Structure prediction request, 84 residues.
Amino acid sequence: MQQNNMKMQEIAAAEPIIKHHCHCMHKCGQGAPVLESEPLQQVPQMQETVNQMHVAAAEVKTEADVKVEQLEEKKFPRRRNGLD
Prediction:
């Protein structure tokens, strides 16, 4: 009888935790379709494309900076000692 009462107390003590767990699992179950959606599944592949675009943009910027500097040097040559 005493053992039975202890089991009942354990169950009563665990009930809020179990309810909270069930509530969380229910929310996770609702979130699963979103997490498994096609757009979210494509994120890793798209990230690689974005990384490549950043690298390409950096290369283009470097080339553009060099060309701008060459053009500025051609149009506005630097003075050697300020005496020219």
Observations:
- The CA atoms of residues 26 and 42 lie 25 Å apart.
